[in-house]
Write a structure and sequence with these properties.
The structure is a homodimer. Chain A is of the alpha+beta class and about 220 residues long. The first copy, chain A, has helices at about 5-20, 25-30, 35-45, 65-85, 95-100, 105-115, 165-170, 205-210; strands at about 50, 60, 140-145, 150-160, 180-185, 190-195, 200-205, 210-215. The complex binds manganese (II) ion (4 copies). Chain A binds a DNA duplex (30 and 30 nucleotides) through helix 3.
Chain lengths: ~220, ~220
Amino acid sequence: MTLTEENYLKALFHLSLENEEVSVLDLSKSLNIKMPTVNSMVKKLSSKELISYEKYKPLTLTQGGKRAAGLIIRKHRLVEMFLVEHLGFGWDEVHEIAEQIEHIKSQRFFDRIDQLLDFPKVDPHGSPIPDINGEVAIQNYKKLEECHEGQQATFMSVGSSQDSFLKLIDKLNLKLGDKIKVLEIQDFDKTMRVLVNNNSEQTLSQLGATKILVKLNV
Amino acid sequence: MTLTEENYLKALFHLSLENEEVSVLDLSKSLNIKMPTVNSMVKKLSSKELISYEKYKPLTLTQGGKRAAGLIIRKHRLVEMFLVEHLGFGWDEVHEIAEQIEHIKSQRFFDRIDQLLDFPKVDPHGSPIPDINGEVAIQNYKKLEECHEGQQATFMSVGSSQDSFLKLIDKLNLKLGDKIKVLEIQDFDKTMRVLVNNNSEQTLSQLGATKILVKLNV
DNA sequence: AATTTTTGTTAGACTATTCTAACATTATAG
DNA sequence: CTATAATGTTAGAATAGTCTAACAAAAATT
Ligand SMILES: [Mn+2]
Ligand SMILES: [Mn+2]
Ligand SMILES: [Mn+2]
Ligand SMILES: [Mn+2]
């Protein structure tokens, strides 16, 4: 499989998680590639039985396509983790590099990284690292936005890897695993005042709170 | 610059070190790409002022081409070193992976690896790592083959990265930095009996001794 | 139900990299 | 110094991946 094909599969995989149905237009937008190009690549991947394609119908990955995509995402996330843990990169700097290294052809290379990291289950953004069969564990975290005043939760994952969002989280001194207690929610604009790890008070916009994924503490 | 262009420059660089003059045929053989293809790529790189090209004349790198090639080789060798030192690869396993990773677009990535390795000067095969300007230090080591009976030398570099050769060196338990004393050279076939680090005796064929590069001990 | 908008497809073209076949030049060997 | 061999070049075609322009189908609006 070529780097290009791999990127199409990965994009379709991600879109399929976010949306009920995925169109050629969706894929086109997500890859920043014009529709006719996507159309022909989809046909090609369909002929390789990685994508199920019927004219004018939504796109889906075949079993094989899902597995292939999962394995690429596995490599991507292992690399991101490695870049943060061993090369000292910030979590806002690793995506672009991982986007390239995920295409390296060497099973062994990724196995070693996995081993060096002691077989991590999540990447630096809290996203699950698919297993050796490309299988992705389903996380069902809650958006912090959905929490009520007084509730306590643990910060498990980010809902966006946008640079500006990650940098904001850094600035608020929030880290995965932190305990977040909702102190107050403004009626007017849903702005949240929260207590982090029982010691630092922070304010979050509603949009920000949407992208902070948490597990409620019992 | 594309991966393909980078590989052409690198190949020409290496050939230029080994031979007085480099022909289109040499480059073609070394890249395993047919001559007409090489011919057109050479023209393209010439138009980018990376290669000096005149019809029917030997090929040379321009100043810029040399620098570009040096920088790619720098990345290649840093990666090889990293793979050996931090991911536990054998020196016979790293070339293929480095061949891919050398094309990753991220200055910072290679800077971090350089730092993590504490700015190494040589790769796992004893070859010099070009500096940040692509400048390669010239090593002038002697072939062990040229040493006389009784001489002592230090194993500095290998003259071949062929898998079978590297594996042989491993089997003989020879490592870069080892002290080698020439005990005896057979008149008949130039086979060498040597003493390694004053404790293990080994036998080397003439061909083998040609590929072991050493610095004479005074 | 007819019209408009959105989405999808086809056709044709372009660049990058590669190839084979044919021809040209240079080098080598009588 | 010619004939042959080796090397180099040109021409033309193929594949992968991309694009624009034009047309077609499906969905959304009157
Ligand atoms: Mn990422
Ligand atoms: Mn990618
Ligand atoms: Mn190498
Ligand atoms: Mn390479």
